[in-house]
Amino acid sequence: MSPSAHHRPPTALAQAPRWYASNLVGVPALQLASTAFNAQPLPLSIRGTRAAHPALFEQLEAATSLLAARDTFVRYMDDAFALHKPPHPPHPAPSGAAMPGDHRRWRTSWRKLLQGWGMDANGPAGAVIKGWVESRFGLVPTFHKAPLGHYPSAAWVAYIEEKNASRYHNNHIHQQFDVLYEFCQLSLRRFGPPANGLTPQHASLWRGSNRCEEQVVAGRLTNRRCTMQLNNVVSMSLCAQDASCFGDWVLQVQVPLCKLVTYPGLLPGQVLQGEQEVLALGGHYDVEASDVVF
């Protein structure tokens, strides 16, 4: 399509990932990332996750409330991944002897990773979560500390190093997030979406951003409606006022429920920085943009 007053050439960031990885959800990544999928979403499930944890999902299906399901999820994850125990050697080390490296290393968890994302989505925890989305859903990230343009580049090397670093990338962290995603989807189906104003298939969410122009792939931001390429996983808010704290532009997005990874009330305690924060899969989205100060 030739450029026009309404459609202009995409920026370098929007052009960046012209490839998609294979995935484990049965929907081609190119389709999953499209606005067409957002308009008519399909249920998603990470292959093998429920079969690998049958006892958990039997208990979750039997739960009579979200609170009961949440308690079941936390207890199971603690036991299955030994999250309630600090790492320790099988036998006490002799006095003064150094503890083997494998036993000194901390045992990471879904909670620590989400807390790390909440502090800095472009930090090591953020890279691991982006890597998990890339592995499971085939969506390639567009940004991590810097635009991820043509490969190879310094930005890509830094991202790959962080997403594979052992500090967070241990204790089967991808499998932990697989279970978390499936728990989220089961909870949405069993107990309903997290807030009012939602349809059976979509959540109306908001995102504050200062990096908007370079993400536009069709239309113009100044026209208030356009298509944008969001990173492969992004934080969004349940209300516009909360989103306005994170950027000069506030984007309203209709996100399929099958693209939600976490939502407020799903997990105990405050695992993300914002109490109304939603973690969702990215890709191309039609958005309504506003620069109104709330």
Computed over alpha carbons, the radius of gyration is 20 Å
Enumerate how many helices there are, as a single number. 12
* Helix-strand sequence: HHHHHHHHHEEHHEEEHEEE
The tally of beta strands, per DSSP, is 8
| Approximate shape | globular
**Total domain count:** 1
* Average pLDDT for all residues: 85
Assembly context of the chains: single chain
Distance between the termini: 37 Å
Binned, the helix content reads 25-40%
Helix-strand makeup class: alpha+beta
Unreliable stretches (pLDDT < 50, length at least 5) are 1-17, 93-104
Strand content: 15-25%
Largest sheet: 6 strands, antiparallel
Condensed summary:
The protein has 294 residues and is of the alpha+beta class.
Written description of the protein model:
This protein has twelve helices and eight strands. It has one domain. The strands form two sheets. Strands 3, 4, 5, 6, 7 and 8 form a six-stranded antiparallel β-sheet that branches. A two-stranded antiparallel ribbon has the order 1-2. A hairpin with a 5-residue loop joins β4 and β5. The N terminus is likely disordered. α5 runs antiparallel to α6. It is globular. 35% of the residues lie in helices and 18% in strands. It is α+β, with helices and mostly antiparallel strands.
